Amino acid sequence: MTQLASTGHGPLAGIRILDLSSVVMGPYATQVLGDLGADIIKVESPDGDNMRAVGPMRHPGMGHLYLHLNRNKRSIVLDLKNEAGREACLRLAQSCDVLLYNIRPQAMARLGLSYEAVRARNPRLVYVGAYGFSEAGPYAGRPAYDDLIQGQTGIAHLIQQQSGDVPRYAPLTLADRAVGLHVAIAMVSAVLHARQRGEGQSVEIPMFEGMAHLVLGDHLGGATFEPPLGSTGYARLLAAHRRPYATSDGYICLLIYNDKHWRSFFKLIGRPELAQDPRFCNHTARAQHIDEAYAFLAEVMRTRSSAEWLADLAQADIPSARLYSVDDLIEDPHLRATGFICEQQHPSEGHLRTPAPLGRYTGTPTSIRRPAPRLGEHSREILREAGCTDAEIDALIAARATADISLNKGSI
Length: 412
Fold this sequence. Notes:
This protein is of the alpha/beta class. The protein has helices at residues 25-35, 64-69, 83-93, 105-110, 115-121, 146-152, 155-163, 174-197, 207-219, 235-238, 259-268, 283-288, 290-301, 306-315, 326-330, 333-337, 379-385, 390-398, and strands at 16-19, 39-44, 73-77, 98-101, 126-131, 201-206, 245-246, 251-254, 320-322, 341-346, 350-355.
């Protein structure tokens, strides 16, 4: 079983982030940076991050998604609607490189935590807002969740268009995690600028625009040109038969992509003459007849078993793979061999499995240095680092502005 690293010197060691975000997008961004060595101070309300309540879980407040999203972080409880809590937050910001939040800027201002207020305490601080819609447009301030953003950026409609079924959302928090990576990149980029120039800045990363960037990159299609050269959409991605192919006894995943692949496939099935067929003879022709090409594949793939196809396709050097379930993914021998599935002992939650930090760094290795914290587990520790005395911390606890669970005192 992998042990928690006692120290971490990842590539972002020395960067400190004050994370006021909750749910998935912001916490995922800081989880990525925490894995890379950044010191993440997770500020939680007295009720805690909503994801603490999403099961399955062994103990209240320690749901499975929370555990994955919030490793390599320290938790401090601060009631930001309490004047003492707000002041404590500003005090913490003085020693941080980044402050991340995911509520509307107007709400931050009402809390007394506007960019101007924070900048007055730390001019070098990077102030990052990750929320639904840009403040520059008419949708500013609208509520935004993953399902809504998937729907509003065309993803559910694209799935309907491709499948001929009803509109559906992708079965993962696609918008939160995709835009969360943009948020992580923004934080690192702005910190590099702040350290080079000696001044921070305010940064906005909106979900709607972030996912529109992803969708339109593939599907602008003919609308790329003015006047348009056809309809929107990337035909290959929308082909009805672009899906796992049914074999005689199951399904496999297959992508016959370039000219060499197709020639090899036609030879494999005993139809080498099809390489001269005007529909299939080159990449441009196949793109123009992609529905026919994929329908042909769907018909042929039913003639052999999955095991036969996988062996024959591998021999012909044509890209193919088994169709996995999530359970299969967990047991994948490659992920096991590379150590991607970490098995660890959490101090309160027991034996856990979690994905490892991504990538290999020869000079600054990544690590899981801390398990996901209990609510307010590090309140006293973090406040001491900010220069608060024990008497001041006790006063904050008495004012219900913070809580210190490490000593089982000051519960809110």
